[in-house]
Structure formats: structure tokens, C-alpha cells
User: Fold this.
Amino acid sequence: MTLVTAVAAATACGAGDPVPTAVHAEVAKVPPMGWSSWSFIRQEPSEQNIEAQAKALATSGLLAHGYRQVNLDDFYYLNPATQVDAYGRWVVDPKKFPDGIAALAAYVHGLGEGFGMYLTPGIPVAAYQRNTPIEGTTFHARDIVSNTAQFETNYNFGSGSMYFIDFNKNPAAAQAYLNSWANELAGWGVDYVKLDGIDDTNIADLQHWSIALKQSQRAIYLGLSNGNGLPAEGTWADYANAWRIEHDVECYCSATSYPLTEWANVAQRFTDVPKWLKYTGGGGWNDLDSIEIGNGANNGLTATERQTQFTLWAISAAPLMLGTDLTHLDPADVALLTNDEVIAVDQRGRPAHPLSQQSGQQVWVSANGDGSYTVALFNLGSATAPVSLTWNELGFGGPATARDLWSHTDLGASTGFGVTLAPHASRLLRVTPVNG
Assistant:
């Protein structure tokens, strides 16, 4: 779709008309796997350290196991309250990225990896103040802003840097502005966009960004953040490929990046996930946030808790995006992250549900579509406790064989399974009925 036809399409949708679904479902047939800069690098991304992480993703062997996405998160651009390009878009910080984003994306692509970037909704205050033109049109920034007393969410430079876009004031101009930004990203070679600061007040932004990415003619994955809250029926799944179901998993509990998280932040997801199950699957996924496994004790989780985090993410068919420092990987953590039987649970794209949430000992299950089941057993309590189930609870009688996916061990045939688990421990099984 050209810019002209995209503007025409946007104009054809009246202010009160629904915006057509326009998401690249084909780029999210399975949950994405890779790495994001926020958890470890946070406010100091640079060309040098992003390239180092991308290289480590390949040389560590993680790429060979499916971790291929490299995402540049926040703090890569200049203050949009004072700095914009000729068409009112963010300006990449030339000190941090002297060769530009296109060169960085090319480096990442050269390693066989995908490249992603970060945005927040709205239009820069500087664009409005300068009334910058909207690329390829006769429109200008002030054609799409009505309220200069309120500001959009921006976590880098805060309130005062971004205005809300008024999509009703001039629909064609608003869509053209986002199209120009999406086209710039596509021209740089971006494969993934994280749109942050999204909640149910930003549905119009999401709808129009989805259209903008689609018309760019590059297949770009769209992920939403932060702590989006339960949407109006189908909203996130109609317009995005993933959506965060909770606020950041990072604990922010020291002056440095470490520890990256804590058990309480991981455990919260056990309560959150079931509320979102009906929205996930088939091109759009519940995002539980970063996997904080890779740096040993610096993860902020015990070895037992790391396995449990990965287990929950895998059975939830969640994006597996690492937040750790890939240049200093812990060998035991790498063994967790490269367990192909567990990764296959995630990539099968069949999210599990809990049989009960009435206690700290839980069993989650999903049908695999081939007659077998994935079963996860958790002890979320603070004391050692037994966890068990019979196959009748899965909906069939008679014996079944079980395989422990973490230890790659066949457990033989039985009519159920029970285990005593340490605090915060888990087991992950593949259960196959003997009689089909």
C-alpha cells in the first residue's frame, strides 16, 4: 500500500467508524524468542553494547536453539520536547549510535537475527511547536493535535515531551504521520516494534499504528507494553501480536541492574495468566515480560525459581525474551535456556490452564493436539509440599506414560503422578495415554 492509498483508506474511515483489523499475524505464528536490552542495559544502550549482545546471542549457542530477536528498548533517542527530525519524529542519539539504526540492524541481520525497536504513543512536543510537515503530504503536526495541556506517557523524558494525537481532528493526517514513522522503521530494517505506555486509553493509537506497520510493506511484529490491563473484548488480539499482562518483572531493588528480578514478581504471574487465557494463541500472545535467567545469582532468583519461571512462561506459550547479560552467561542457566523439550512446549503455542488455584500447590495442563498432554506441577508455597494428580483429572481413564521434560527422563506408565516439591519448585511432564 502506498502512502497515498493509506491516507485514502484512513480518510474513508469516519471518526466514529471502526478501524479495520490490520495485524501481521504471519509474523507471530509461534511466540517470539530472543533478547531485549531493558532489564540489563536499561538507560545506557549504545551501538557497541547492543552489537556485543547480538554477537553473544549467536556465539553462546542460544541462536541455534531459537533465540533470534534482538530488541533495542528505551533511551536511544534525544528529548522529543526539543529535538525532532524534519518530519516530526524522534531523533536517534548520535553519540550512542554514531553509525545509525540502519547500520545496527544490518549488523544484527548479518548474524541471522531479527532487530526490534521501542516507541511510545503520541507526537513530540517539538513537532507541534515547529509545526513540522508530515512526510509525503501537505499536512503538518498541528493538524493532529488538539490538546496541549495534557501529555502522553513517555518513560524516558517524562511528562512534557509527547502530546496526544487526535485521530478525529484530521484522520488522514494522523494516519499519514504514523505511516511516515512506520516507513522509516521499515527502511531501517526493523522487524519488531515494542509500543510502550499502552492502556485502554490508547486503543486508537494501537489501531492506527497497526495500519501504519501493515502499509509499510515490511512484516513487522507489534508488541504492547506496559501492564495493559484486561482489554475490551478482542482489542489487543485484533491489533497486536503480543501484549503485556502485568507491569515489569524487574524488581528495581538496587542502584544497578542487579538483581534483575525477585520471586514475588515472578509469582504474581500465576495469578495473572488465567485471566488472559481467552485472548492468547494463533498470532497473538500473552506476554509475561522478560525471562531473567542467564546471570546466575544476579538474576535475583534461586536455581529452583529460575526453572519455575521458565516452566510457567513455556506452558503459557509466552514470548521468551531474555533480559540478562548475554556476554556473561552462567553455564547452568544456559542449560535451562537451551532445553529443547521445554522450548518445544512454548513453541507449540498451546497455553495451559490451572486445574485449581485454591492453594499454593498447583497443576497446570494443556492438550497438545496429538492426544498427549503437557502437565506442570508447582509448589508456590514457602514450605516443602506434595503435589499430585490422577489422569482422570485430565479427562481420561486408564494408564498413561509420562516423560519428565526437564530431566529428559521416561517415567513409565501409571494412572497418575505425585511428587514432593521444595518451595517454589516445579516439574514439567508430557503425558501420553496408553490407549490413545
